[in-house]
Specification:
Keywords: 2Fe-2S, Acetylation, Iron, Iron-sulfur, Metal-binding, Phosphoprotein, Repeat. Residues 16-119 form the Rieske domain. The structure is a single chain. By secondary structure, this protein is mainly beta. It has helices spanning 22-28, 148-162; strands spanning 16-21, 30-35, 38-45, 48-53, 67-71, 74-78, 85-87, 92-95, 111-115, 119-125, 128-132. The chain is 13% helix and 37% strand. The protein has a 6-stranded antiparallel beta sheet. Strands 5-6-7-8-9 form a 5-stranded antiparallel beta sheet, with no helix packed on it.
Length: 163
């Protein structure tokens, strides 16, 4: 069984978690796996791999369904629920401030809210893609959607929708 066939990703001795064959991920464009209790999205875009928590920091939207766009010269994933913009490299929330004293109202330049989404590092070895979880112990807003309680609530809501 290859690492891509397992539900929980196996880890290498160095803390890396195998997500699958490089070519399979390129073809799929996005892969979500459970790694040490975290739902991680690995995506391939314009020749690069990125990894981040799959649930948006704002309200838990599924970022695997988000569009990739550039804002202020930074590549972002856009949450499909509320259109929050999150940088792929740093996990920063992006917004355009508006000065209410200036009429007519016009949005300012794209600005960072700071790191809101946990991002993880991606490496390639022997044709396989590996993720190393972000080692920071500082809380990040997207962490609240990485709990068993949240997964159970989400599963219950999905069952109710099917009825």
């Amino acid at each position: 069984m290859s690492c891509a066939d397992r539900q929980e990703t196996p880890s290498a001795d160095d803390g890396r978690h195998c997500f699958g064959k490089r070519e399979d991920i390129i073809q799929a464009k996005r892969v979500v796996k459970l790694v040490n209790g975290r739902d991680i999205l690995v995506l391939y875009h314009e020749g690069e791999f990125y990894a981040l928590d799959v649930h948006c920091y704002h309200s838990g939207g599924n970022l695997a369904l988000g569009d990739i766009e550039e804002f202020g010269g930074r590549l972002c994933i856009v949450c499909p629920w509320h259109k929050y913009k999150i940088t792929l490299l740093e996990g920063e929330g992006m917004y355009q401030p508006v000065d209410p004293s200036v009429k007519p109202l016009r949005p300012g330049p794209w600005t960072s809210k700071g790191v809101k989404q946990r991002v993880h590092s991606v490496t390639e070895s022997n044709g396989y893609i590996y993720v190393t979880l972000n080692p920071s112990t500082e809380p990040i807003e997207s962490d609240c959607y990485q709990t068993e309680k949240y997964r159970a609530t989400r599963a219950k809501m999905q069952l109710q929708k099917k009825k």
